Amino acid sequence: MSESKVIANQKTILQNQRTIIANQGALRANQTTIKKNQASILKNQGIILKNQGALNTILANQKEILARLNK
């Protein structure tokens, strides 16, 4: 293999390594965002459960009111 071909290959390798490093940086940033989103989802799930409990109470109260009105 000629010296110029070796040098060309080395340049390609260096370019690919720069691309890999840039992609790794993007992946780390995305992982940070994913972690934040997962924390938000978990927090929201707690709120949703609380709201569902409140809605169940409202529904039970409405049923009780309807039962009394129908008497």
Layout: helices, strands, pairs:
Layout: H1 3-69
What does this structure look like?
- This protein is 94% helix and 0% strand.
- The chain is mostly helical and 71 residues long.
- It is built from one helix and no strands.
- The longest helix has 67 residues, at 3-69.
Give a brief outline of the structure:
The protein has 71 residues and is an all-alpha fold. The protein has one helix at residues 3-69. The radius of gyration is 30 Å and the shape is rod-shaped.
Largest sheet: none
Low-confidence stretches: none
What structural class do the secondary elements suggest?
Answer: mainly alpha
> What is the helical fraction, as a range of percent?
over 70%
Number of helices: 1
Mean pLDDT over all positions: 96
Distance between the termini: 98 Å
- Give the total of beta strands: 0
What is the CA-based Rg, rounded?
30 Å
Features:
rod-shaped; 71 residues; single chain
